[in-house]
Structure prediction request, 114 residues.
Amino acid sequence: QVQLVESGGGLVQPGGSLRLSCAASGFLFSAYAMSWYRQAPGKERESVADISSTGGSTNYADSVKGRFTISRDNTKNTMYLQMNSLESDDTAVYYCYARLLGSWGQGTQVTVSS
Prediction:
């Protein structure tokens, strides 16, 4: 079955960096566009970034443009989110999402705090 497993979250100081990973299995990863979403406490889940199936096209929320980079390695069935210059407002649970499959990962917590 489709499985998406996020990792790489943690506690980081403002201005710091983290790299999230999303390991995919149970489907032909290279055929599907993928996304990162996040949900902060008391807020709606929001889109962070999207990447096409080949990785040739990406889109970002305005709030993360210039700080976050989405990428994927189809040979490893893995998607990444490099997060730099982290801010307290980036604190959230981050999820990977395969839209056309309607599948979500379990999420990984990112906390930005001094």
